[in-house]
Write a structure and sequence with these properties.
Length: 120
């Protein structure tokens, strides 16, 4: 199970790192094309995604403040809940399955790494 958990953490970190960096490299018009949210808010979400990606990996690798990993995963769950809520009215229920699945994986990491939070 530890290898599977680390695999999920790395894949989620790569996904959130990509999503966060994309929010900074896209033009404002492209960023708000499919969604009715402000550009500064979307850039803030990008910062949260990048920090969450770092929080999924770095504490465990460095063995320092490992309790940040379940907190980062929990924060990413909150972001994914928001993504589902925003996606359903704008694009429909079917496209909302992707952020739902990512949120479930982040919740899995938060749950399985909860012992790191208590030992930090």
């Amino acid at each position: 199970m530890p290898y599977a958990l680390w695999t999920v953490q790395v894949l989620l970190a790569l996904l959130f790192l990509f999503a966060g960096v994309t929010k900074f490299t896209m033009s404002s018009e492209d960023l708000t094309k499919d969604i009715n949210l402000s550009v500064p808010f979307l850039r803030f979400i990008g910062v949260c995604e990048v920090l969450g990606a770092i929080g999924l990996i770095l504490p465990g690798l460095a063995h320092v403040r490992r309790g940040l990993t379940p907190l980062a995963a929990g924060g990413l769950v909150i972001i994914m809940i928001g993504a589902v809520v925003v996606t359903i009215p704008s694009m429909g229920a079917l496209p909302a399955l992707w952020p739902l699945a990512v949120g479930v994986l982040a919740a899995f990491v938060a749950y399985r790494r909860r012992s790191w939070f208590t030992t930090a």
